[in-house]
Specification:
This protein is of the alpha/beta class and about 220 residues long. It contains three helices and 14 strands. The strands form two sheets. A seven-stranded parallel beta sheet has the order 1-3-5-7-9-11-13, with no helix packed on it. A seven-stranded parallel beta sheet has the order 2-4-6-8-10-12-14, covered by helices on one side. The longest helix is centred in the C-terminal third of the chain and has 15 residues. The radius of gyration is 18 Å and the shape is globular.
């Protein structure tokens, strides 16, 4: 992961893969003629404001509390993945605002709470009246390990009949029987735990350096 502490605002007008390390509030504008993949490593409690005018996939990895405000400003498709792995008490608030007709959003909120950690995820999607043809989807999932706890609040604020909005949510303990099964197949405990957590978060297509960051956070959990 590039060790870049970004300025208070940044603009992407070309497609491609971008990686940012964030330690302050930031405004991000995406206006490209092709897909943008944006990988965020969030180090502190911050507000991330994103205006999207082109197709984008955003991955945010954090152990802190974050507020993401994502405005969809054109007939595009947006995928937002928020991944929280923490032993602290944090709140992640993910807000998606459909400001264009026929726009599509997929919001994925994944959390791993371990030791004395507590994660609250508030997933909020907004479709105002007149935003016809919008398709809005949410998937929120958390796992609690040891004394970890979590709460999920999936909210769909829909004021337009000609739209589609769906959400699903799951929170529960980690089931050690899957870990035991993989160990019986000759897979080390650490590797098995890593595989299970990545499978739980349904992650793929990650750059090597971003995956290493994720592995490091998972390793902290393994020492539970």
């Amino acid at each position: 992961m590039n060790n870049i502490i970004v300025d208070s605002s940044v603009n992407y007008n070309k497609g491609g893969v971008y990686k940012l390390t964030i330690d302050k509030d930031i405004d991000i504008k995406i206006e490209s003629d092709s897909l943008v993949k944006l990988y965020l490593n969030t180090l502190k409690n911050v507000n991330i404001n994103i205006n999207a005018e082109s197709n984008v996939k955003i991955y945010n990895l954090t152990s802190k509390g974050v507020v993401v405000n994502l405005k969809i400003l054109d007939e595009i498709e947006v995928n937002l993945y928020n991944m929280s792995i923490t032993d602290k008490k944090i709140v992640n608030m993910l807000n998606i605002y459909h400001k264009a007709k026929n726009s599509v959003s997929h919001l994925y909120c994944y959390g791993v709470s371990y030791n004395e950690g507590n994660i609250k995820i508030a997933a909020n999607s907004y479709i105002n009246k007149g935003m016809t043809g919008v398709n809005c989807n949410q998937v929120s999932r958390t796992i609690n390990i040891n004394n970890g706890t979590s709460v999920i609040e999936p909210n769909l604020y829909v004021d337009e009949f000609d739209s589609v909005a769906n959400h699903s949510a799951y929170t529960g303990p980690f089931d050690d029987k899957y870990l035991f099964y993989l160990e019986t197949k000759g897979i080390s405990r650490d590797k098995a735990f890593n595989l299970l957590l990545k499978g739980f978060m349904k992650l793929d297509d990650l750059p090597k350096d971003f995956e290493k960051l994720l592995d490091k956070k998972i390793k902290n959990v393994i020492g539970r």
